[in-house]
Amino acid sequence: MTARFDCSTIARRIPREEVFSSVYSLIIVDDEHEIRHGLERYFPWNEIGFEVTGTFENGRAALDHVRRTKTDVAFCDILMRGMNGIEFAEAVRREQIPVSIVFLSAHRDFEYAQHALRLGVRRYVVKPTRYEELMRTFRELKAELDEEKSEKPIVRATPDAIVESVVRYCEGDLASACLEGAARHVGMNPHYLSRLFKEQSRENFSSFLTRVRMTRAASMLRTTGLPAYTIGEKLGYSNANTFSRRFKQWFGSSPSEYRRERAELPE
Question: For residue 144, which of 110, 96, 171, 181 has the smallest C-alpha distance?
Fold first, then answer.
């Protein structure tokens, strides 16, 4: 891609008296050398809690790196030759590699942003990047990472205790519960947690989460007057049709049919 990167806009510095408790590893992925070089050299990453541990010209090289080396954040362009940013994010999500992604793009297209959100991308920065926007974006990300890190992991817990903690986590936040969130909650790798959960409960994590959501949905349909789409949103289904289809697969009737047959609301 050919979007320009103005290094002069980020050549300023911030006060050195700012102190950070944690430093997170960060890689920069862009197919233009000038942009990679400018971001690495002229932005004060170390002063806001990040350390650049590598720069890569495409998603393939970056993916090989994060597979081998623990990386906290990937600041990644979208349109690149070879493996692009979307493909990189899809591979990271598919392989459950614990790296946070911030997209960098010359495109303001809403569809790109939507796709990024679906892939779990943390932020979306539009070129040409401005110093203030980069500073705000990565300060916010640093605060999020610190908060996640401060959540006390289970130490020397038994497998049963880990599963119990995951169950409580899911039941307490069905709107956003997911495998990655559960793994952060107990301080484990998502892939390992998924395997452990199935071994201990004899149920896949995804099947368990669907079962709990459907059970809660049925209860809410029987006992509340909330519209079905609102119930779906509260249980993590942003699309009403997806919620209705999943509910019918589970119970054999649509949410509205189920409510008519089994409502427990007072007359």
Answer: 181
pTM for this structure?
0.52
Architecture of domain 159-262: Orthogonal Bundle (1.10)
- CATH number for 7-150 (one of 3.40.50.300, 1.10.760.10, 3.40.50.1860, 3.40.50.2300): it is 3.40.50.2300
Instruction: Provide the pLDDT confidence category of residue 180 given band limits of 50, 70 and 90.
Output: confident
Q: Is the peptide bond before 266 cis (omega within 30 degrees of 0)?
A: no
And the tokens for 191?
A: 């892939």
Burial (CB count within 10 angstroms: exposed 0-12, middle 13-18, buried 19+), residue 243:
buried
Q: For residue 259, which amino acid is it? A: R
* Domain spans, the chain: 7-150, 159-262
Residue 55 has pLDDT above 90, yes or no: yes
Q: What percent of the chain has pLDDT over 70?
A: 84
